[in-house]
């Protein structure tokens, strides 16, 4: 009898054990099933964001600005990437990266920070820092010391681009105009950085744009901004860099300045020595995937004026541009062209994505529509990139090496040409004084 009871007890214990094990297995499966949807609903990983800060007091350094931004944003990872005196103002401009910025910062376009009264500073009127990420207008990325400053370089982004983001490496923070070019454009005599480097931003969105400006309107705004930045009497040569639509804006600005009777415009025009084009559609581009994005928006005329299908506007502009620049030796033009097909725009679930059939947006013949004496490999160079990525370079990018060498050489020749012009002018002025006064 005792043996039967013991067997029964063992059997019951075994059944209970199996029940517990089965319950745990089922619970684990249910837990795994409920966790999967939660993974897709997790908040997005924060990204580094780059902002422009303007209105910075002239006596602030990077550390002071960094501490102010840290206190204002409650973000510990704040890096001041550039700090430069903004021309013809009493303030500095900076670019700053906010590391691991919360997602709510991605939706913020701009805000203001009251300039705090720091120790050992004189109290005065209220001043404000303006923090924003549109980068509209002129932004100085680097300015050498006044004694070393010999040339100005200004870069314009393209259609649907961003003054800063268009020139930043893909999936990285390196921006070659800010982080590499200043150290490579150096004086031939002492090897010191000699170029002030600036970018110019303007409204150029394609989809849902509310802007109805044409190329001439955009060029007028750029012309005025450039004049305000370099001053009415520029003493240094200027090199302009244009990507895509930015190149067309540069061309129209030069045409307008060459025809102007205003002394300030004449002086500014004479200061511009070189132009570097990246994928500029001198003879038009493929806009077939852009028209559905624009629909009947106010910027449709701008997009259609860039078409490669018999654009009369571009044909006239090209003719006038060649006349404006003058003869060989007065200036230099370089043209870079893309060799990889670009994905085109395609509407997916109501959103426009670059997932359409790939194509060459700006052909080699359109991108290199330069002057007869500049049709060799020295002035026309391929870049093995798509249209948008042809101005995005990493720290050790082999494509950047070709660009760097041409811009450096162009800059040094521009400085030499300006020095020669000043010497010639001084000699001519001296000879006229001698003649007028009858001196020997």
TrEMBL record:
State the SUPFAM superfamilies in the record.
alpha/beta-Hydrolases
The keyword Transmembrane helix appears for this protein: yes
Where the protein is mainly located, per its record?
Answer: endoplasmic reticulum
Where does the protein end up? Endoplasmic reticulum; Membrane; Mitochondrion
- Segments traversing the membrane: 6-26
Give the UniProt keywords, A-Z: Endoplasmic reticulum, Membrane, Mitochondrion, Transmembrane, Transmembrane helix
Organism of derivation:
Hypocrea jecorina (strain ATCC 56765 / BCRC 32924 / NRRL 11460 / Rut C-30) (Trichoderma reesei)
Put simply, this protein is called DUF676 domain-containing protein
One Gene Ontology cellular component annotation?
endoplasmic reticulum
Could you confirm whether the keyword Transmembrane appears in this record? yes
């Amino acid at each position: 009898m005792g043996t039967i009871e013991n067997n029964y007890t063992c059997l019951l214990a075994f059944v209970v054990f199996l029940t517990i094990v089965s319950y745990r297995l089922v619970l684990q499966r249910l837990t795994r099933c409920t966790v999967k949807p939660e993974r897709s609903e997790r908040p997005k990983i924060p990204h580094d964001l780059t902002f422009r800060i303007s209105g910075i007091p002239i006596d602030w350094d990077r550390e002071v600005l960094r501490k102010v931004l840290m206190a204002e944003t409650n973000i510990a990872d704040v890096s001041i990437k550039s700090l430069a005196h903004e021309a013809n103002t009493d303030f500095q401009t900076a670019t700053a990266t906010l590391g691991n910025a919360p997602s709510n910062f991605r939706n913020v376009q701009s805000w203001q920070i009251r300039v705090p009264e720091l120790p050992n500073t004189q109290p005065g009127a209220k001043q404000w820092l303006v923090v924003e990420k549109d980068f509209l207008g002129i932004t100085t990325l680097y300015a050498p010391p006044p004694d070393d400053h010999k040339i100005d370089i200004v870069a314009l982004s393209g259609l649907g681009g961003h003054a800063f983001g268009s020139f930043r490496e893909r999936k990285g923070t390196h921006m070659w105009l800010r982080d590499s070019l200043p150290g490579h454009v150096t004086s031939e005599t002492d090897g010191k950085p000699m170029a002030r480097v600036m970018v110019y931003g303007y409204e150029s969105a394609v989809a849902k744009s509310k802007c109805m400006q044409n190329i001439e309107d955009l060029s007028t705004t750029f012309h005025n901004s450039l004049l305000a930045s370099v001053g009415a009497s520029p003493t240094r040569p200027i090199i302009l860099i244009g990507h895509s639509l930015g190149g067309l804006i540069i061309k129209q600005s030069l045409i307008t300045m060459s025809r102007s009777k205003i002394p300030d415009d004449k002086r500014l025009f004479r200061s511009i020595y070189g132009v570097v084009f990246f994928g500029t559609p001198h003879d038009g581009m493929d806009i077939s995937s852009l028209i559905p994005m624009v629909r009947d928006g106010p910027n449709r005329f701008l997009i259609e004026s860039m078409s490669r299908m018999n654009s009369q506007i571009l044909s006239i502009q090209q003719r006038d541009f060649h006349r404006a620049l003058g003869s060989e030796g007065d200036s230099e033009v370089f043209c870079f062209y893309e060799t990889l097909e670009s994905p085109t725009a395609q509407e997916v679930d109501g959103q426009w994505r670059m997932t359409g059939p790939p194509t060459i947006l700006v052909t080699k013949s359109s991108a290199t529509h330069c002057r007869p004496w500049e049709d060799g490999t020295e002035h026309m160079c391929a870049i093995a990139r798509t249209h948008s990525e042809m101005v995005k370079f990493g720290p050790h990018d082999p494509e950047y090496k070709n660009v760097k060498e041409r811009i450096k050489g162009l800059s040094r020749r521009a400085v030499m040409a300006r020095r020669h012009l000043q010497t010639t002018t001084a000699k001519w002025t001296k000879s006229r004084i001698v003649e007028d006064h009858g001196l020997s």
